[in-house]
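Supplementary Methods, section 5.1.

A reviewer requested that the exact input to the structure prediction be made available. We therefore reproduce it here, unchanged from the version used in the analyses.
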Amino acid sequence: MPERAPRVILAFDFGLRRIGIAAGNTVSNAATPLGAALVNTAGPDWLSIDRHLKHYDPDLLIVGRPYNVDGSIGTLESAAAQFAAAVAARSGRPVERVDERYSSLEASAQLRQARAAGTRGVFSAPISMARRRRSCWSATCAVSVKDTVEEQQLER
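The structure derived from this sequence is encoded token-by-token as follows.
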């Protein structure tokens, strides 16, 4: 069976105040949290999102699908779907929607472990609570990227 070509993936964790961003690839199976783009009354910070799109030139975009723990669709799904359509239109890249039900719990646990080990998550210096929240949003995206890469490798 022929191997798939390496792919660069950019993931977004949509929220009403911020959108977490992470990048990863299918070569290293690693994902890097990139921070978060703010959302205000005018909408997402498209300049920030466009910079990431240009810099990483991804093959695939991931946008989380906010399910509730019981499997029902979360209240943010409509807004997340609109964001997914907008980022697809802006980038010309395919968007895959992924279940993000437990990714924030996993990301929070990873950040807690990193801080307990003295690495403070993805930051090496003390950080503010606001920056820690942005770190959690982008770490959630990194979990989504890793999960997607693992699923794609299982499909080979």
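The chain has a mean pLDDT of 77. These observations are discussed further in the main text.
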